[in-house]
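FORM 12-B: Structure-to-Sequence Request
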């Protein structure tokens, strides 16, 4: 499918869906191409219409008599048919997320998928992204990373989700609410080990903050000094998996001093990036040996 802009001559956009990235904090972080699209699209849709109106006003882009349609998690099923009908009528439809790049933790996914499945051209005007901005500032490896979105709110499911990610050989990136930040960091330490991490807050805004350190240190800091604003958490890769058996034995014994067999196996396997089953079996043997020695 060709880029719908490619056939556009004479100032207007050709029919299709245009996914436009918007600033994550600083209003000047918008591309010239995005402003051109905002000025010329036949129909505008936005996760937050008030935010898009303010952005257009700041940059002198007139809405005129063009429709501006709200499209978010709560009304997507109702608004989507209207936007698809506009596409079918040969209109250019622009969708903008509230902040950042559409499709990244964003309700526009269903709209883009429906448009593509219906055979309409879909293209993107890339720009600001909190995930990528945080990666550039965190000081953690960027050769491989995994964006995991928001973790579950409840403690048990949160730890389960972290365990599922424990063996991923990449920097882990999460969105988190400032209210849950200390608990999330503490849970990550318990499950993944005390890895190096970074908390990036209010990116591109006046009070931007990047704090780096072990998970335990960050958890203590944000428990004492509650965070405010938008938060991205990045967690470094676990220690190398090439660990000698004696090292594992020492680590498991140390973990068993304060943890159950199951928790010790989870903790050590996550920390060293090794398979859980052999670590669990080792923990069982060491626990049984400790009980017999103490008898």
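FORM 12-B RESPONSE
SEQUENCE OUT:
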């Amino acid at each position: 499918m060709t880029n719908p802009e490619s056939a556009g001559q004479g100032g207007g956009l050709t029919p299709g869906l245009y996914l436009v990235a918007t600033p994550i904090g600083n209003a000047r972080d918008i591309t010239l191409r995005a402003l051109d699209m905002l000025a010329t699209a036949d129909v505008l849709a936005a996760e937050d219409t008030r935010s898009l109106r303010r952005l257009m006003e700041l940059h002198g882009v007139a809405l005129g008599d063009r429709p501006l349609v709200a499209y978010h998690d709560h009304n997507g099923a109702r608004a989507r048919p209207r936007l698809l009908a506009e596409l079918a009528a040969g209109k250019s439809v622009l969708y903008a997320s509230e902040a950042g790049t559409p499709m990244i933790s964003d309700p526009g996914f269903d709209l883009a998928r429906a448009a593509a499945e219906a055979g309409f051209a879909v293209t993107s005007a890339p720009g600001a992204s909190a995930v990528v901005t945080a990666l550039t500032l965190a000081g953690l490896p960027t050769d491989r990373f995994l964006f995991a979105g928001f973790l579950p709110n409840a403690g048990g499911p949160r730890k389960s989700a972290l365990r599922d990610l424990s063996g991923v050989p990449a920097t882990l990136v999460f969105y988190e609410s400032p209210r849950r930040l200390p608990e999330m960091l503490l849970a990550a330490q318990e499950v993944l080990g005390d890895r190096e991490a970074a908390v990036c807050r209010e990116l591109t805004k006046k009070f931007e903050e990047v704090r780096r350190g072990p998970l335990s240190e960050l958890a203590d800091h944000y428990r004492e000094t509650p965070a405010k604003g938008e938060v991205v958490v990045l967690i470094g890769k676990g220690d190398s998996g090439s660990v000698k058996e004696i090292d594992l034995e020492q680590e498991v014994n140390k973990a068993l001093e304060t943890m159950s067999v199951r928790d010790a196996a989870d903790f050590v396997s996550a920390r060293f990036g090794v398979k859980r089953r052999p670590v669990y079996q080792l923990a069982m043997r060491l626990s049984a040996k400790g009980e017999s020695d103490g008898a």
